[in-house]
Design goal:
mainly alpha; 3 helices
């Protein structure tokens, strides 16, 4: 941890620089990092908001689909006898009448 402050700040400091100048540069760096953190947090909030909106929309569509499916009443089924099971006499009498 024996790194000089000028190397950490990325700019050479003249030997006569006061602690006020170093504190000012450190304050600027701190503000830049704070802005970067706020920006990253805001991006994550937007991403999570969009994902939640999609999940909510998907859930609503599923509920509506289930509701409409349960409300659907199918028509009664009609049973049809095959022609071979009807006796021949009955088929002929139906055709004449």
């Amino acid at each position: 941890m024996e790194v000089p402050v000028s190397q950490l700040l990325g700019a050479p400091l003249p030997p006569e620089s006061s602690t006020d100048q170093v504190a000012e540069q450190l304050a600027r760096i701190n503000e830049q990092l704070a802005q970067k953190n706020r920006r990253a947090r805001r991006i994550w909030q937007v991403v999570v908001g969009i994902l939640l909106a999609f999940v909510l929309l998907w859930g609503i569509l599923c509920l509506l689909s289930y509701h409409s499916y349960t409300q659907y009443v199918s028509p009664p089924k009609i049973q049809v006898e095959p022609l071979s099971s009807i006796p021949v006499e009955r088929r002929c009498s139906d055709a004449v009448a």
